[in-house]
Each structure stands twice: as structure tokens, then as C-alpha cells.
Amino acid sequence: MTTTATEDPQGRPGQDPQGRPAREPASTPGASGASGAALAVLPGVLTSALAWTDAHRTRFALPDDVLEPHTQVNATLKPLGELAQLGSTIRRTTAPGTPEHEVAGDLVAYAWEQMHEGALLLELLRAEPFAAYPYEIYAAFAGYGLRHEGFEALARPLTATRAWAHTEQHANRQLGLVNSERRVGVVTHTDAGGVLSRTWLGGLSEPWMFEGPSGYALTHTVFHLTDWGRMPDRVPKKIDGYLRTWLPAWADGCLESGQWDLTGELLAVAASLPGPAPVELLDAVWPVLADVQHPTGCVPETGVPAEDPSPDPYPFIDCYHSTLVTAFAAALSLRSLRQTDEQTGKRTGEQTGETTPGRERHTP
What we know:
364 residues, 14 helices
């Protein structure tokens, strides 16, 4: 995987091939990043991405014929399910009373309303008892505390069938189903550890074999394993070390090729690791993604960022997911960096004997 050159094809330093300012490659572990660079841009990135999403919430609305066989799930139910999933994580990750916390909660409530408080998902489950996606969408709400008694009453016997336990799917998708079962609160149909070992990430695949599909499989393996960043301690030590070593190179390759959506997912993975935040990586990559973000808050999935100043520089389908992912990754990164700062400050205070201002130090 190569890094971006600092000269353009005509030999002019300081520009990339598209004429934009050249960037430094993402830092490697142990390198000294521009301390605080991520924290300087993250609050604005999060606020702006959520504002765009909120302003476009009606674009997530389900059509009247959503239950008809011809309706495209990926263009209707999938975006709304992603709004619920990422919105609920942002709500849990941000501080109560902040605008971001409130907007994220409003977006989840809107998604639940579109699902008719779960009744629509029950109809989907009745129509397609063999399909996993209604259950997975429902689990996003159930993990947030929104439940439908009728849906769960039907789902219980269905998820106890042999067919459910033997649904043929990729390992990372099966891990997602296990996490959905955990969220709903039922016994999982298989062991998560065994499924993890069969994923691209769980096998610690050769890092130079990383490409688009394996990248998305990797990120979703981490999301399902950690319940979308809520439980970093579920990441095994060997996978944590592998990711900390290779995420900088993968992120740099995504930046170089304009894969903004996958860049955002890799940043969310970096912020979902146990222990201290990978500060050098976050400081190197977040300012670049912040520059890609349009003034309205949206982020394109791929390609050269638009310079069009209009409110909608990209088609909705080409930016809604990357914008949601950017907000999701920003919320997780802020949490991870602030926790690291708090822990570092606490350790420093313990070493120097300093105490929190306004409190006495009591000696036993």
C-alpha cells in the first residue's frame, strides 16, 4: 500500500493529482502526531454531520409500498435501520443535555415512528420468517430500549428453529446476528468466539490483502463484536495489537484513493479498541476527513469532494451512509480521546501528587 506523494505529476510540490493540498501520510504507531489535531476538528464534524442528517430525515422515510415484494430493501429499510443503529450509538456516546445527544435521540425516535413502533417489523417477520434482516433491524431498537411485544413473541420460536441456527452467511454477518440476539436478550444460536475465528480479521489475515470488501468485513466484525463500539473490552488482545499496527496503513490507503466512507469506518474501529486511543492515527486522519466534509455537513462515499456550494452537492444515496458513519466515528473518537486524556491526567496527578482543584488530599 502506497502513500500519497507530495509532488504532483508536473513536479509542483504541495498538491495531489486532483490539485488539492497534499497531505502527510497517516502516522505509524509510535510516531509523534500533531497532538490535539483530532480534538480540534471533531466537535464541528460531529455537529455538522448530525445537522445534515436531521435536515434530511424525511429522505429516510419509508414508502407506502414498503411491504410489497418489489420494494428494494437496500434503498428503504436498510437506510432507516442504519439511522437507528448509528443514531442510538451516538446518543449513548454523547453527554446528556448536549445538542448532539438530543438530535441523535430525535433521529432514533423518528426511525421508530417510521417502523410504526415495531408493528411494521412484525409484518416483515410474518412475511419473511426465513429472513434475518427484520430481526437485525429490530435489535437496533431493542438495544436502545424500544421493544414490541408481538414481534418478540413471534421471533422466539423462529430463532429456536434449526433453519435459523444453520442460515448460510458470511462469518461477519453471522457475528452480527449473534450480537442482535444478545441485544434482544435471547440465548445466542452459536458461540461468538468460534464465529470470530472464521472472519478475515479473526484469522489475522495478511495485511497487504486488505481491499474494499475485506475492509468492510473487518470493520463490521469489530462493530458486531463490540456492540457498535459500546464494549471495547470484547476485542481480544491479539486482534487489538493487529489493528493498532495496521490501521494507519489501511487508513492512509483509503485517504489516497478517496474512500471516505471506509475511512470513517476505520476511524470508528480505531475508537472502539480497548485501552488508550490511537492518538497518532486519529490526529493524522481526522483533519483530512474534516476537509472532505461539505460545509452543509455531508460527506461523499468516494471520489473528489464537490466544490458545489448548493445545499445538496451529492445525491442522497451517495452520501447518507458516509455522513452517518462520519458522525458515528466522530462521537466514538471524542469519547476515546477524552477518556484517554482523563486517564493520562489521573496518572500524571498520581505521580506528581497533584489533586483535583477544590478537593483536599486526605492522608490515611
